[in-house]
Amino acid sequence: MSDAKLEIKLKVAGKRYPMKIDASLEEFYRLSERDVNRYLMNYMKDKIDGYNDQDYLALVALQLATANRLLLRNREVGGDEMQRLAALSAEVEALLTK
After folding, report:
1. pLDDT digits (tens, 9 = 90+) for 70-79
2. Cα 3 from chain centroid?
């Protein structure tokens, strides 16, 4: 990744936030800005009594954190998968040494 820094302003929930980012990541930040605002609008259209912008942003944060956790879990290789890989490796090794 590039070391070049870029100053951008992202607008979330109607407020602009200045940021210094790696120039190579600008597209990711812009897409993330759109995602957060889209999720926010989806929650806000439900008009939950007593909820303010901060509550809706908390729901968005929870949704994004949950999605991140699911991605991390799906990337992890569990014990069952390791056992299957070990068994396959042993089979391949046996076939190669015949």
Report:
1. 888 877 767 6
2. 23
